[in-house]
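Narrative progress, year one. The postdoctoral researcher (J.K.) led the effort to move from monomer predictions toward full complexes, under supervision of the PI. The following entry was the first complex the group processed end to end, covering 633 residues in total.
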Amino acid sequence: MEDCGYGIFQLLRVGRGCRLFAKPDSWSVMLVTDSPRQAPRPPYSLPPIIEAVIQIVYPDKFAASRADAFRSKLSPLYDSKTDLKQVTAHIEPERRKAEFQDVPQTRFASNDQTDAIVVSPDGLLWTRLAPYPGWDVFAERVARDLKLAIKHLSIGKPSRIGMRFINRIDVPATGDVVRYEDYLAINIDLPPQISSVDNYGWRFECPFPTLGLRAVLQSAVVEPEVPSHLSFLLDIDVIAMNELPADLDSMLSHLEKMRTLKNELFELSIRDKAREQFSR
Amino acid sequence: MSYVTISPAYGRGKTRLLVRPSSGGQFGLRVEDIFKPTDGALSDDREQVTGNTLAESIFESLANAKIWTSKVAMHMDMANRDRFFRQLDRLHDAEEWMEGDQPVQLETYKNFIRFMLSDGRDSKPSLALSADGVLTAIWVAGTDRLTVEFQRHNRVSWVVSNTIGPNVERAAGITSTDRLLTNLAPYEPRKWLATK
Amino acid sequence: MARDKVRISPIPDCDHLMRLVPHKQQIRDPDTDVFIGIVNTAFSLRTSDKGGLSTQWVEYFGEKSLPTYSSAAERYRDNLPSKRIGSLAYFAIGNVGMVKLAASEAKKRIRVVHEPDGTNEGHAVIRRFTDDDRALLDVLAIEVFAEHVWVGDLDLN
Protein backbone atom coordinates (compact mmCIF):
# COMPACT_ATOMS: atom_id res chain seq x y z
CA MET A 1 0.00 0.00 0.00
CA GLU A 2 1.34 3.41 -0.91
CA ASP A 3 0.26 7.02 -0.88
CA CYS A 4 -0.18 7.99 -4.52
CA GLY A 5 -1.06 11.58 -3.72
CA TYR A 6 -4.76 10.92 -3.78
CA GLY A 7 -4.91 8.50 -0.91
CA ILE A 8 -3.47 5.16 0.17
CA PHE A 9 -3.84 2.59 -2.59
CA GLN A 10 -2.31 -0.72 -3.53
CA LEU A 11 0.58 -0.31 -5.92
CA LEU A 12 0.11 -2.76 -8.78
CA ARG A 13 2.86 -1.85 -11.21
CA VAL A 14 5.61 0.74 -11.75
CA GLY A 15 6.01 1.96 -15.33
CA ARG A 16 8.16 4.58 -17.04
CA GLY A 17 7.08 7.85 -15.48
CA CYS A 18 3.92 6.43 -14.02
CA ARG A 19 2.48 4.02 -11.44
CA LEU A 20 -0.68 1.87 -11.51
CA PHE A 21 -2.74 1.71 -8.35
CA ALA A 22 -5.79 -0.30 -7.34
CA LYS A 23 -8.27 0.93 -4.82
CA PRO A 24 -8.87 -1.58 -2.02
CA ASP A 25 -12.22 -3.27 -2.06
CA SER A 26 -12.81 -1.95 -5.52
CA TRP A 27 -12.41 -3.10 -9.13
CA SER A 28 -11.18 0.33 -10.25
CA VAL A 29 -7.59 1.18 -11.04
CA MET A 30 -5.86 4.50 -11.27
CA LEU A 31 -2.85 5.49 -13.37
CA VAL A 32 -0.78 8.23 -11.71
CA THR A 33 1.95 9.97 -13.70
CA ASP A 34 5.08 10.98 -11.83
CA SER A 35 5.71 14.73 -11.46
CA PRO A 36 8.37 16.01 -13.89
CA ARG A 37 11.68 16.75 -12.16
CA GLN A 38 11.71 20.37 -11.19
CA ALA A 39 14.56 22.45 -12.55
CA PRO A 40 16.59 24.28 -9.90
CA ARG A 41 15.37 27.71 -8.85
CA PRO A 42 17.24 30.65 -7.31
CA PRO A 43 19.22 31.23 -5.26
CA TYR A 44 21.61 29.12 -7.32
CA SER A 45 24.56 27.38 -5.69
CA LEU A 46 26.85 28.40 -8.58
CA PRO A 47 25.45 31.72 -9.85
CA PRO A 48 26.79 32.55 -13.33
CA ILE A 49 27.42 36.18 -12.42
CA ILE A 50 30.92 37.25 -13.42
CA GLU A 51 30.40 40.89 -12.53
CA ALA A 52 27.72 42.80 -10.64
CA VAL A 53 27.79 46.59 -10.95
CA ILE A 54 25.86 49.39 -9.27
CA GLN A 55 26.49 52.94 -10.44
CA ILE A 56 25.08 56.18 -9.11
CA VAL A 57 25.71 59.37 -11.07
CA TYR A 58 25.05 62.87 -9.79
CA PRO A 59 24.21 65.98 -11.80
CA ASP A 60 27.09 67.99 -10.34
CA LYS A 61 30.66 67.24 -9.48
CA PHE A 62 31.54 66.64 -5.86
CA ALA A 63 33.38 69.44 -4.13
CA ALA A 64 37.07 68.55 -4.13
CA SER A 65 37.54 68.86 -0.37
CA ARG A 66 34.48 66.75 0.31
CA ALA A 67 35.64 64.12 -2.18
CA ASP A 68 38.98 63.95 -0.38
CA ALA A 69 37.20 63.53 2.96
CA PHE A 70 35.05 60.75 1.54
CA ARG A 71 38.04 58.95 0.07
CA SER A 72 39.84 59.11 3.39
CA LYS A 73 36.84 57.44 5.05
CA LEU A 74 36.69 54.75 2.39
CA SER A 75 40.38 53.95 2.53
CA PRO A 76 40.38 51.88 5.76
CA LEU A 77 37.45 49.80 4.47
CA TYR A 78 39.40 48.43 1.53
CA ASP A 79 42.85 46.87 1.09
CA SER A 80 44.14 48.88 -1.85
CA LYS A 81 43.72 52.22 -3.56
CA THR A 82 44.59 52.91 -7.20
CA ASP A 83 44.40 56.11 -9.21
CA LEU A 84 42.73 55.69 -12.58
CA LYS A 85 41.73 57.90 -15.42
CA GLN A 86 38.82 57.39 -17.75
CA VAL A 87 39.85 58.48 -21.19
CA THR A 88 37.21 59.62 -23.61
CA ALA A 89 37.99 60.61 -27.17
CA HIS A 90 36.15 62.85 -29.56
CA ILE A 91 37.38 62.11 -33.06
CA GLU A 92 36.47 63.96 -36.24
CA PRO A 93 38.11 61.92 -39.02
CA GLU A 94 37.06 64.30 -41.79
CA ARG A 95 38.82 67.15 -40.00
CA ARG A 96 41.66 64.88 -38.84
CA LYS A 97 41.02 66.11 -35.38
CA ALA A 98 41.02 64.24 -32.09
CA GLU A 99 40.43 65.54 -28.59
CA PHE A 100 40.99 63.54 -25.46
CA GLN A 101 39.54 64.12 -22.07
CA ASP A 102 40.84 62.55 -18.88
CA VAL A 103 38.48 62.00 -15.99
CA PRO A 104 40.38 61.17 -12.79
CA GLN A 105 39.02 58.35 -10.66
CA THR A 106 40.05 56.44 -7.57
CA ARG A 107 39.50 52.71 -7.23
CA PHE A 108 39.41 51.03 -3.85
CA ALA A 109 39.48 47.23 -3.82
CA SER A 110 39.74 44.20 -1.57
CA ASN A 111 42.95 42.19 -1.62
CA ASP A 112 41.43 39.56 -3.89
CA GLN A 113 40.01 42.31 -6.16
CA THR A 114 36.46 40.92 -5.98
CA ASP A 115 35.03 43.94 -4.13
CA ALA A 116 35.72 47.39 -5.48
CA ILE A 117 34.36 50.93 -5.59
CA VAL A 118 35.36 53.55 -8.12
CA VAL A 119 34.95 57.19 -7.10
CA SER A 120 34.57 59.60 -10.03
CA PRO A 121 34.18 63.38 -9.91
CA ASP A 122 30.41 62.94 -10.20
CA GLY A 123 29.62 59.35 -9.37
CA LEU A 124 30.16 56.16 -7.49
CA LEU A 125 30.48 52.70 -9.00
CA TRP A 126 30.52 49.48 -7.01
CA THR A 127 31.59 46.19 -8.54
CA ARG A 128 31.57 42.65 -7.28
CA LEU A 129 33.37 39.93 -9.25
CA ALA A 130 32.81 36.18 -9.02
CA PRO A 131 32.35 34.35 -6.77
CA TYR A 132 29.12 36.27 -6.22
CA PRO A 133 28.25 36.04 -2.51
CA GLY A 134 24.58 36.94 -2.85
CA TRP A 135 22.63 40.18 -3.00
CA ASP A 136 22.53 40.72 0.75
CA VAL A 137 26.31 40.81 1.03
CA PHE A 138 26.74 43.06 -2.01
CA ALA A 139 23.96 45.41 -0.93
CA GLU A 140 25.34 45.63 2.59
CA ARG A 141 28.66 46.97 1.29
CA VAL A 142 26.93 49.41 -1.04
CA ALA A 143 24.76 50.64 1.82
CA ARG A 144 27.80 51.08 4.06
CA ASP A 145 29.70 53.13 1.49
CA LEU A 146 26.63 55.08 0.39
CA LYS A 147 25.96 56.13 3.96
CA LEU A 148 29.45 57.59 4.12
CA ALA A 149 29.00 59.23 0.73
CA ILE A 150 25.76 60.94 1.70
CA LYS A 151 27.34 62.20 4.90
CA HIS A 152 30.66 63.44 3.50
CA LEU A 153 29.87 64.39 -0.09
CA SER A 154 26.76 66.34 0.81
CA ILE A 155 25.00 64.98 -2.24
CA GLY A 156 21.39 65.38 -3.30
CA LYS A 157 19.33 63.47 -5.78
CA PRO A 158 21.26 61.47 -8.34
CA SER A 159 20.65 61.89 -12.05
CA ARG A 160 20.99 58.19 -12.84
CA ILE A 161 21.18 54.84 -11.10
CA GLY A 162 22.37 51.81 -13.02
CA MET A 163 22.45 48.16 -12.05
CA ARG A 164 24.23 45.76 -14.36
CA PHE A 165 24.69 42.03 -13.90
CA ILE A 166 26.91 40.26 -16.40
CA ASN A 167 26.35 36.51 -16.51
CA ARG A 168 28.41 33.95 -18.31
CA ILE A 169 26.89 30.57 -19.05
CA ASP A 170 29.55 27.90 -19.50
CA VAL A 171 28.43 24.82 -21.36
CA PRO A 172 30.49 21.61 -21.66
CA ALA A 173 31.61 21.32 -25.26
CA THR A 174 30.37 17.90 -26.23
CA GLY A 175 29.90 17.28 -29.92
CA ASP A 176 30.34 19.66 -32.83
CA VAL A 177 27.44 22.03 -32.16
CA VAL A 178 26.09 23.50 -28.96
CA ARG A 179 22.61 24.95 -29.31
CA TYR A 180 22.57 28.15 -27.34
CA GLU A 181 18.80 28.11 -27.81
CA ASP A 182 18.74 25.21 -25.35
CA TYR A 183 20.11 27.54 -22.68
CA LEU A 184 18.76 30.97 -23.59
CA ALA A 185 15.10 31.71 -24.12
CA ILE A 186 15.75 34.82 -26.24
CA ASN A 187 16.94 33.68 -29.63
CA ILE A 188 17.72 34.85 -33.09
CA ASP A 189 15.25 33.36 -35.52
CA LEU A 190 17.42 32.09 -38.36
CA PRO A 191 16.00 30.69 -41.60
CA PRO A 192 16.29 26.89 -41.83
CA GLN A 193 18.87 27.21 -44.60
CA ILE A 194 21.34 28.51 -42.01
CA SER A 195 21.79 25.53 -39.74
CA SER A 196 24.57 26.85 -37.53
CA VAL A 197 26.70 29.93 -36.98
CA ASP A 198 30.15 30.49 -35.54
CA ASN A 199 29.18 33.55 -33.58
CA TYR A 200 26.12 35.56 -32.58
CA GLY A 201 25.20 38.69 -30.71
CA TRP A 202 22.01 40.53 -29.92
CA ARG A 203 21.05 43.61 -27.97
CA PHE A 204 17.78 45.32 -27.20
CA GLU A 205 16.37 47.97 -24.91
CA CYS A 206 12.95 47.98 -23.37
CA PRO A 207 11.13 50.49 -21.15
CA PHE A 208 9.17 49.66 -18.02
CA PRO A 209 7.31 52.95 -17.57
CA THR A 210 5.17 51.88 -14.62
CA LEU A 211 8.39 51.11 -12.74
CA GLY A 212 10.23 54.16 -14.04
CA LEU A 213 12.95 51.86 -15.33
CA ARG A 214 14.60 50.90 -18.59
CA ALA A 215 16.44 47.65 -19.32
CA VAL A 216 19.17 46.82 -21.81
CA LEU A 217 19.73 43.14 -22.49
CA GLN A 218 22.65 41.82 -24.48
CA SER A 219 24.00 38.39 -25.31
CA ALA A 220 26.83 37.02 -27.40
CA VAL A 221 29.19 34.11 -27.70
CA VAL A 222 32.45 34.86 -25.93
CA GLU A 223 35.85 33.24 -25.81
CA PRO A 224 35.63 30.51 -23.17
CA GLU A 225 37.87 30.84 -20.13
CA VAL A 226 37.30 27.29 -18.94
CA PRO A 227 38.86 24.42 -20.90
CA SER A 228 36.49 22.20 -22.88
CA HIS A 229 33.58 24.62 -22.57
CA LEU A 230 31.69 27.07 -24.74
CA SER A 231 30.46 30.31 -23.23
CA PHE A 232 27.59 32.75 -23.74
CA LEU A 233 27.21 36.09 -22.05
CA LEU A 234 23.89 37.36 -20.80
CA ASP A 235 24.20 40.98 -19.75
CA ILE A 236 21.27 42.69 -18.02
CA ASP A 237 21.45 46.42 -17.36
CA VAL A 238 18.60 48.15 -15.50
CA ILE A 239 18.61 51.95 -15.51
CA ALA A 240 16.65 54.47 -13.49
CA MET A 241 16.65 58.12 -14.47
CA ASN A 242 13.37 59.54 -13.21
CA GLU A 243 12.28 60.67 -9.76
CA LEU A 244 15.29 59.32 -7.99
CA PRO A 245 15.53 59.54 -4.21
CA ALA A 246 18.26 61.24 -2.19
CA ASP A 247 18.09 59.60 1.23
CA LEU A 248 19.75 56.29 1.99
CA ASP A 249 16.70 54.17 2.78
CA SER A 250 14.81 55.27 -0.31
CA MET A 251 17.88 54.69 -2.43
CA LEU A 252 18.24 51.16 -1.12
CA SER A 253 14.55 50.49 -1.76
CA HIS A 254 15.04 51.72 -5.30
CA LEU A 255 17.94 49.33 -5.77
CA GLU A 256 15.75 46.50 -4.47
CA LYS A 257 13.12 47.38 -7.05
CA MET A 258 15.71 47.39 -9.81
CA ARG A 259 17.08 44.09 -8.62
CA THR A 260 13.62 42.52 -8.69
CA LEU A 261 13.21 43.54 -12.32
CA LYS A 262 16.72 42.32 -13.13
CA ASN A 263 15.93 38.94 -11.59
CA GLU A 264 12.68 38.62 -13.49
CA LEU A 265 14.39 39.45 -16.77
CA PHE A 266 17.12 36.93 -15.99
CA GLU A 267 14.67 34.13 -15.27
CA LEU A 268 12.76 34.97 -18.44
CA SER A 269 15.95 34.85 -20.48
CA ILE A 270 17.17 31.40 -19.52
CA ARG A 271 15.97 27.82 -19.87
CA ASP A 272 16.10 24.94 -17.41
CA LYS A 273 19.18 23.53 -19.06
CA ALA A 274 21.05 26.70 -18.07
CA ARG A 275 19.61 26.51 -14.54
CA GLU A 276 21.08 23.04 -14.20
CA GLN A 277 24.54 24.47 -14.94
CA PHE A 278 24.14 26.92 -12.03
CA SER A 279 23.32 24.23 -9.54
CA ARG A 280 25.83 21.47 -10.18
CA MET B 1 29.71 41.41 -46.50
CA SER B 2 27.26 39.22 -44.59
CA TYR B 3 24.04 39.78 -42.79
CA VAL B 4 22.18 38.36 -39.84
CA THR B 5 18.44 38.38 -39.61
CA ILE B 6 17.14 39.17 -36.16
CA SER B 7 13.55 38.77 -35.06
CA PRO B 8 12.44 41.09 -32.27
CA ALA B 9 11.05 39.28 -29.26
CA TYR B 10 7.45 40.16 -30.07
CA GLY B 11 7.64 38.76 -33.59
CA ARG B 12 6.40 41.89 -35.28
CA GLY B 13 8.63 41.42 -38.29
CA LYS B 14 12.20 40.96 -39.24
CA THR B 15 14.88 43.59 -38.99
CA ARG B 16 17.78 43.26 -41.31
CA LEU B 17 21.15 44.38 -40.02
CA LEU B 18 24.12 44.72 -42.27
CA VAL B 19 27.22 43.30 -40.66
CA ARG B 20 30.44 44.31 -42.31
CA PRO B 21 33.57 42.65 -40.90
CA SER B 22 35.75 45.70 -41.44
CA SER B 23 33.10 48.25 -40.56
CA GLY B 24 34.17 51.25 -38.54
CA GLY B 25 30.81 50.91 -36.86
CA GLN B 26 29.32 53.71 -38.88
CA PHE B 27 27.00 51.68 -41.06
CA GLY B 28 26.21 48.67 -38.99
CA LEU B 29 26.84 46.68 -35.89
CA ARG B 30 29.68 44.26 -35.44
CA VAL B 31 29.30 41.46 -32.96
CA GLU B 32 32.01 43.01 -30.86
CA ASP B 33 30.06 46.29 -30.88
CA ILE B 34 27.13 44.60 -29.15
CA PHE B 35 28.59 45.28 -25.74
CA LYS B 36 29.53 48.90 -26.31
CA PRO B 37 27.80 51.15 -23.83
CA THR B 38 25.12 53.60 -24.86
CA ASP B 39 23.77 56.62 -23.07
CA GLY B 40 22.59 55.62 -19.67
CA ALA B 41 24.36 52.29 -19.70
CA LEU B 42 27.35 51.46 -17.60
CA SER B 43 30.74 51.83 -19.20
CA ASP B 44 33.99 50.01 -18.71
CA ASP B 45 36.57 52.10 -20.47
CA ARG B 46 38.76 53.04 -17.59
CA GLU B 47 42.49 53.07 -17.94
CA GLN B 48 44.83 52.63 -15.05
CA VAL B 49 47.29 55.35 -14.35
CA THR B 50 50.36 53.17 -14.18
CA GLY B 51 53.36 54.67 -12.59
CA ASN B 52 56.89 53.53 -13.10
CA THR B 53 57.53 52.32 -9.60
CA LEU B 54 58.23 48.68 -8.86
CA ALA B 55 55.44 48.55 -6.31
CA GLU B 56 52.90 49.81 -8.85
CA SER B 57 54.06 47.36 -11.47
CA ILE B 58 53.85 44.45 -9.04
CA PHE B 59 50.43 45.55 -7.80
CA GLU B 60 49.05 45.83 -11.33
CA SER B 61 50.26 42.35 -12.27
CA LEU B 62 48.86 40.82 -9.10
CA ALA B 63 45.55 42.63 -9.50
CA ASN B 64 45.25 41.51 -13.12
CA ALA B 65 45.84 37.90 -12.12
CA LYS B 66 43.23 38.07 -9.36
CA ILE B 67 40.70 39.87 -11.52
CA TRP B 68 41.13 37.27 -14.24
CA THR B 69 40.70 34.49 -11.67
CA SER B 70 37.22 35.81 -10.95
CA LYS B 71 36.25 34.79 -14.47
CA VAL B 72 36.69 31.13 -13.54
CA ALA B 73 36.02 31.37 -9.80
CA MET B 74 32.66 29.67 -10.12
CA HIS B 75 34.49 26.53 -11.29
CA MET B 76 37.07 26.64 -8.54
CA ASP B 77 37.21 25.48 -4.96
CA MET B 78 37.55 28.65 -2.88
CA ALA B 79 40.19 27.08 -0.64
CA ASN B 80 42.32 26.49 -3.74
CA ARG B 81 41.73 30.00 -5.00
CA ASP B 82 42.75 31.49 -1.64
CA ARG B 83 45.86 29.31 -1.54
CA PHE B 84 46.92 30.43 -5.02
CA PHE B 85 46.39 34.07 -4.02
CA ARG B 86 48.42 33.67 -0.83
CA GLN B 87 51.26 32.11 -2.76
CA LEU B 88 51.10 34.80 -5.45
CA ASP B 89 51.24 37.49 -2.77
CA ARG B 90 54.30 35.86 -1.19
CA LEU B 91 56.02 35.52 -4.56
CA HIS B 92 55.57 39.25 -5.09
CA ASP B 93 56.84 40.41 -1.73
CA ALA B 94 58.75 43.61 -2.50
CA GLU B 95 61.14 42.86 0.37
CA GLU B 96 62.33 39.73 -1.47
CA TRP B 97 62.50 41.25 -4.93
CA MET B 98 65.73 40.96 -6.96
CA GLU B 99 66.78 43.63 -9.41
CA GLY B 100 65.62 42.85 -12.93
CA ASP B 101 62.87 40.45 -11.80
CA GLN B 102 59.51 40.61 -13.54
CA PRO B 103 56.11 40.05 -11.90
CA VAL B 104 53.95 37.13 -12.99
CA GLN B 105 53.06 37.10 -16.66
CA LEU B 106 49.28 36.88 -16.84
CA GLU B 107 49.29 34.36 -19.69
CA THR B 108 51.46 31.93 -17.73
CA TYR B 109 49.18 32.27 -14.73
CA LYS B 110 46.10 31.63 -16.87
CA ASN B 111 47.79 28.55 -18.32
CA PHE B 112 48.42 27.24 -14.81
CA ILE B 113 44.88 27.89 -13.58
CA ARG B 114 43.34 26.22 -16.61
CA PHE B 115 45.44 23.15 -15.89
CA MET B 116 44.34 23.21 -12.28
CA LEU B 117 40.69 23.41 -13.36
CA SER B 118 41.07 20.17 -15.25
CA ASP B 119 43.88 17.69 -14.72
CA GLY B 120 45.39 19.29 -11.62
CA ARG B 121 42.15 19.81 -9.73
CA ASP B 122 42.87 17.33 -6.94
CA SER B 123 46.39 18.45 -6.13
CA LYS B 124 48.20 21.10 -4.11
CA PRO B 125 51.35 22.35 -5.84
CA SER B 126 53.91 24.79 -4.55
CA LEU B 127 54.30 27.85 -6.75
CA ALA B 128 57.50 29.57 -7.81
CA LEU B 129 58.32 32.39 -10.20
CA SER B 130 61.24 32.70 -12.59
CA ALA B 131 63.09 35.98 -12.95
CA ASP B 132 61.15 36.76 -16.13
CA GLY B 133 57.74 36.13 -14.55
CA VAL B 134 56.99 32.60 -15.73
CA LEU B 135 54.98 30.66 -13.18
CA THR B 136 56.29 27.26 -12.10
CA ALA B 137 54.36 24.65 -10.15
CA ILE B 138 56.12 21.95 -8.17
CA TRP B 139 54.59 18.78 -6.79
CA VAL B 140 56.61 16.81 -4.25
CA ALA B 141 55.85 13.23 -3.20
CA GLY B 142 58.53 12.06 -0.81
CA THR B 143 61.78 12.26 -2.78
CA ASP B 144 59.98 12.39 -6.12
CA ARG B 145 59.35 15.69 -7.78
CA LEU B 146 57.35 17.04 -10.72
CA THR B 147 58.25 20.55 -11.88
CA VAL B 148 56.16 22.25 -14.55
CA GLU B 149 56.80 25.68 -16.04
CA PHE B 150 53.58 27.13 -17.44
CA GLN B 151 54.62 29.21 -20.41
CA ARG B 152 52.65 31.30 -22.83
CA HIS B 153 50.50 29.98 -25.66
CA ASN B 154 49.35 26.86 -23.83
CA ARG B 155 52.90 25.44 -23.60
CA VAL B 156 54.51 23.72 -20.64
CA SER B 157 58.04 22.57 -19.87
CA TRP B 158 58.11 19.64 -17.44
CA VAL B 159 60.73 17.70 -15.49
CA VAL B 160 60.17 14.54 -13.50
CA SER B 161 62.65 13.11 -11.00
CA ASN B 162 61.88 9.78 -9.39
CA THR B 163 64.13 8.18 -6.79
CA ILE B 164 64.38 4.43 -7.32
CA GLY B 165 66.69 2.82 -4.81
CA PRO B 166 70.04 4.62 -4.91
CA ASN B 167 69.36 6.16 -8.32
CA VAL B 168 67.42 9.16 -9.55
CA GLU B 169 65.53 8.62 -12.77
CA ARG B 170 64.86 11.82 -14.62
CA ALA B 171 62.81 12.83 -17.69
CA ALA B 172 61.95 16.17 -19.25
CA GLY B 173 59.86 17.49 -22.10
CA ILE B 174 57.96 20.34 -23.68
CA THR B 175 54.35 19.94 -24.73
CA SER B 176 50.96 21.62 -24.74
CA THR B 177 49.08 21.95 -21.46
CA ASP B 178 46.29 19.63 -22.51
CA ARG B 179 48.80 16.91 -23.38
CA LEU B 180 50.81 17.20 -20.16
CA LEU B 181 49.06 14.31 -18.44
CA THR B 182 49.61 12.11 -21.48
CA ASN B 183 53.31 12.93 -21.47
CA LEU B 184 53.54 12.15 -17.75
CA ALA B 185 51.70 8.83 -17.98
CA PRO B 186 54.82 6.60 -17.75
CA TYR B 187 55.88 8.30 -14.49
CA GLU B 188 52.87 7.60 -12.26
CA PRO B 189 51.53 11.17 -12.19
CA ARG B 190 48.75 10.22 -9.78
CA LYS B 191 51.17 10.38 -6.85
CA TRP B 192 51.49 14.11 -7.49
CA LEU B 193 48.20 15.04 -9.11
CA ALA B 194 45.65 12.99 -7.16
CA THR B 195 46.50 13.74 -3.58
CA LYS B 196 43.08 14.81 -2.27
CA MET C 1 92.98 30.08 5.26
CA ALA C 2 91.76 32.01 2.21
CA ARG C 3 92.94 30.91 -1.23
CA ASP C 4 95.55 33.01 -3.07
CA LYS C 5 93.77 35.68 -5.07
CA VAL C 6 94.31 34.86 -8.77
CA ARG C 7 92.17 36.54 -11.43
CA ILE C 8 90.12 34.47 -13.91
CA SER C 9 91.47 31.07 -13.19
CA PRO C 10 89.89 27.64 -12.85
CA ILE C 11 88.55 26.68 -9.47
CA PRO C 12 89.62 23.28 -8.11
CA ASP C 13 87.13 20.46 -8.29
CA CYS C 14 87.32 19.93 -4.55
CA ASP C 15 86.08 23.45 -3.80
CA HIS C 16 82.53 24.74 -3.52
CA LEU C 17 80.19 27.31 -5.03
CA MET C 18 77.35 29.28 -3.45
CA ARG C 19 74.32 30.37 -5.48
CA LEU C 20 71.74 32.82 -4.16
CA VAL C 21 68.19 31.44 -4.29
CA PRO C 22 65.60 34.17 -3.74
CA HIS C 23 62.31 33.33 -2.07
CA LYS C 24 60.39 33.11 -5.32
CA GLN C 25 62.65 30.35 -6.62
CA GLN C 26 62.29 28.13 -3.60
CA ILE C 27 59.91 25.25 -3.07
CA ARG C 28 57.77 26.07 -0.06
CA ASP C 29 54.82 24.32 1.47
CA PRO C 30 51.72 25.77 -0.22
CA ASP C 31 49.93 26.22 3.10
CA THR C 32 52.63 26.96 5.68
CA ASP C 33 55.35 28.47 3.46
CA VAL C 34 57.90 26.24 5.17
CA PHE C 35 61.05 25.78 3.10
CA ILE C 36 61.28 22.44 1.25
CA GLY C 37 63.98 22.90 -1.42
CA ILE C 38 64.93 24.90 -4.47
CA VAL C 39 63.33 24.98 -7.90
CA ASN C 40 65.39 24.06 -10.93
CA THR C 41 64.72 27.54 -12.38
CA ALA C 42 67.00 28.93 -9.66
CA PHE C 43 69.73 27.92 -12.11
CA SER C 44 68.21 29.72 -15.08
CA LEU C 45 70.33 32.63 -16.23
CA ARG C 46 69.24 35.94 -14.74
CA THR C 47 69.98 39.44 -16.04
CA SER C 48 72.35 39.80 -13.09
CA ASP C 49 74.39 36.77 -14.15
CA LYS C 50 77.70 37.88 -15.59
CA GLY C 51 78.18 36.01 -18.84
CA GLY C 52 77.53 32.65 -17.21
CA LEU C 53 75.99 31.32 -14.03
CA SER C 54 77.07 33.66 -11.22
CA THR C 55 78.10 32.15 -7.90
CA GLN C 56 80.43 32.79 -4.96
CA TRP C 57 83.65 30.77 -4.58
CA VAL C 58 83.34 29.54 -1.00
CA GLU C 59 87.00 28.69 -0.36
CA TYR C 60 88.09 32.14 -1.52
CA PHE C 61 86.72 33.36 1.78
CA GLY C 62 88.10 30.53 3.91
CA GLU C 63 87.43 26.96 4.80
CA LYS C 64 83.93 25.69 4.24
CA SER C 65 81.98 26.78 7.32
CA LEU C 66 79.12 29.01 8.38
CA PRO C 67 81.37 32.03 9.04
CA THR C 68 82.89 31.57 5.58
CA TYR C 69 79.43 31.42 4.04
CA SER C 70 78.65 34.67 5.87
CA SER C 71 81.70 36.43 4.43
CA ALA C 72 80.87 35.23 0.93
CA ALA C 73 77.24 36.30 1.25
CA GLU C 74 78.19 39.69 2.60
CA ARG C 75 80.56 40.38 -0.29
CA TYR C 76 77.92 39.26 -2.76
CA ARG C 77 75.30 41.48 -1.15
CA ASP C 78 77.51 44.55 -1.05
CA ASN C 79 78.21 44.24 -4.75
CA LEU C 80 74.51 44.30 -5.67
CA PRO C 81 73.06 47.65 -6.85
CA SER C 82 70.42 47.41 -4.11
CA LYS C 83 72.98 46.32 -1.49
CA ARG C 84 70.40 44.00 0.04
CA ILE C 85 69.27 40.38 0.06
CA GLY C 86 65.75 39.37 1.06
CA SER C 87 65.37 37.95 4.53
CA LEU C 88 63.81 34.75 3.18
CA ALA C 89 66.58 34.06 0.68
CA TYR C 90 68.74 30.93 0.82
CA PHE C 91 72.16 30.12 -0.50
CA ALA C 92 72.61 26.75 -2.17
CA ILE C 93 76.08 25.23 -1.91
CA GLY C 94 77.51 22.65 -4.30
CA ASN C 95 80.80 21.01 -5.12
CA VAL C 96 82.64 22.18 -8.23
CA GLY C 97 83.53 18.66 -9.32
CA MET C 98 79.93 17.55 -9.13
CA VAL C 99 78.84 20.59 -11.14
CA LYS C 100 81.27 19.64 -13.89
CA LEU C 101 80.25 15.99 -13.79
CA ALA C 102 76.55 16.85 -14.08
CA ALA C 103 77.24 19.20 -17.00
CA SER C 104 79.41 16.61 -18.70
CA GLU C 105 76.64 14.00 -18.44
CA ALA C 106 74.36 16.56 -20.09
CA LYS C 107 76.89 16.97 -22.90
CA LYS C 108 77.89 20.47 -21.84
CA ARG C 109 81.54 21.51 -21.66
CA ILE C 110 81.58 24.14 -18.97
CA ARG C 111 84.37 25.91 -17.14
CA VAL C 112 84.13 26.99 -13.52
CA VAL C 113 86.35 30.02 -13.14
CA HIS C 114 87.23 32.56 -10.54
CA GLU C 115 86.26 35.95 -11.97
CA PRO C 116 86.19 38.91 -9.55
CA ASP C 117 83.31 41.29 -10.14
CA GLY C 118 83.68 44.86 -8.85
CA THR C 119 84.14 44.74 -5.12
CA ASN C 120 83.16 41.07 -5.05
CA GLU C 121 86.59 39.46 -5.24
CA GLY C 122 85.21 36.00 -4.54
CA HIS C 123 82.90 35.92 -7.55
CA ALA C 124 82.91 32.75 -9.67
CA VAL C 125 81.23 32.03 -12.98
CA ILE C 126 80.18 28.80 -14.64
CA ARG C 127 81.17 29.69 -18.18
CA ARG C 128 79.67 28.22 -21.37
CA PHE C 129 76.61 27.45 -19.31
CA THR C 130 73.18 27.52 -21.00
CA ASP C 131 69.87 26.96 -19.22
CA ASP C 132 67.96 25.28 -22.04
CA ASP C 133 68.37 21.79 -20.56
CA ARG C 134 65.81 21.65 -17.78
CA ALA C 135 66.89 18.18 -16.71
CA LEU C 136 70.40 19.53 -16.01
CA LEU C 137 68.96 22.40 -13.98
CA ASP C 138 66.98 19.83 -12.04
CA VAL C 139 70.13 17.82 -11.27
CA LEU C 140 71.85 20.98 -10.04
CA ALA C 141 68.88 21.94 -7.88
CA ILE C 142 68.29 18.54 -6.28
CA GLU C 143 71.58 16.64 -6.26
CA VAL C 144 74.49 19.03 -6.76
CA PHE C 145 73.56 22.14 -4.81
CA ALA C 146 72.00 20.05 -2.08
CA GLU C 147 73.23 22.05 0.92
CA HIS C 148 70.97 24.99 1.75
CA VAL C 149 71.70 27.83 4.13
CA TRP C 150 69.16 30.41 5.14
CA VAL C 151 70.43 34.03 5.17
CA GLY C 152 68.91 34.39 8.61
CA ASP C 153 71.46 31.86 9.88
CA LEU C 154 74.35 33.88 8.48
CA ASP C 155 76.11 36.61 10.32
CA LEU C 156 75.75 39.49 7.86
CA ASN C 157 76.95 42.92 8.90
